[in-house]
Every structure is written in structure tokens, then in C-alpha cells.
Amino acid sequence: MNCKLCQNALPNLLLKPAAPANAAARAHIAACDLCAKDLASLEATLALLDTWQAPALSPYFDQKLAVHLREQLSAPPAGWFERLRTRLLFNTGRHLRPALAGAMALVLIVGGGSFGIANFQHSRPVQVSAAVNDLQLLQKNEQALQQIDQLLDDNAPAADSDAAPPQS
Ligand SMILES: [Zn+2]
Question: How far is the CA of 23 from the centre of ligand 1 (A)?
Fold first, then answer.
């Protein structure tokens, strides 16, 4: 077991130190000072948490809460600005999710549409230039073929004239 695997096994080792599944982690900690130090630190943290005492509730907590609830229920309804402010401050965003999904869908549709329009506008010059390139290539090839033909035509009589004297 390496140190990374041992770090992942430390919580299990803390909860069940004698479990057979933690034998490899125990063996690594016996040999590795770094992991042993981490385990000791976690054990100290857990021991400190065990000493913590939750504060006792006030004996009048329930009565105070009931009085406060009654006050809030009997208070005049808040204005629209106060309700909006409360909703923005304390909401979980759950009721905004459909609106958010709709806005994102709108962005996708508008973005995709403009992307398609942009491609459509740019596709024609690209196709024209590709055709022009093909025509230019064909023209160059034709010129090259003509030049080769001219060279061959120029060479042919010379070859004939070279070959002719021995024959005549
Ligand atoms: Zn280690």
C-alpha cells in the first residue's frame, strides 16, 4: 500500500482500527512515519471533538419562539418590495430554475441560429475560392503539360537529327 491509498483508508482505520480490511493500512502506518503522524493528528482531533459539550438550551426557548411566531403571524403583511427582498435574500434558487433553463435554451437557440447564419454567409465565398483554386490548378497543369509537349517536340527532331546521320 502506498501513502495515497493509506490516506484514503485513514477514516476507516479511525472508525474500526481492528477490522481485517484495514490490515494493509495498519502495516503501512507501522512502516511510514508520515501516515502515522496523520493518523495521530486525526485521532487527536476526534478526541478533542469527544470532549466538546453542546450548550444547553435555555429553558424559555420554546416560549420565546412561540411568542416570536405569534408576533410575526399577527404583523401586517409586508409590502411587495420587502417580500421581493426577502425572496432574493433567502431563496434557494429552486423556483428560478425553470426560468434559468428557459434563458439558457434561448441562448442556445439564438447562438446556434446566428452560428448557422454566420456559416451560411461565409460558406459561399469559401466554395467560390475553392472552385477558383481548382480552376487555377487545372490551368497550371495544362500549362505544364503544354510546356512538356513543347520540350518533347523540340527534342524529337534533335533526337531524329542525332539519330539520322549514322543511318544516311
Ligand atoms: Zn505512508
Answer: 14
* CA 74–ligand 1 middle distance (angstroms): 63
In terms of Cα–Cα distance, which of 11, 44, 6 is closest to 27?
6
Model pTM score: 0.36
pLDDT in tens, 103-112: 999 888 887 7
Strands (E), the chain: none
Q: Where are the domains of the chain?
A: 3-50
Instruction: State the distance from the centre of ligand 1 to the C-alpha of 96, rounded, in angstroms.
Output: 47
Q: What distance in angstroms lies between residue 8's CA and the mean position of ligand 1's atoms?
A: 11
Residue type, 48: L
Contacting residues for 72 by C-beta, under 8 A, at least 6 apart: none
Distance (Å, whole) CA 54 – CA 151 = 104
Q: What is the pLDDT of residue 66?
A: 94
Distance, CA 29 to ligand 1 centroid (Å)? 6
Q: How far is the CA of 14 from the centre of ligand 1 (A)?
A: 15
Place of cell 477514516: 11
Q: What is the dihedral of CA 148, 149, 150, 153, to 10 degrees?
A: 120
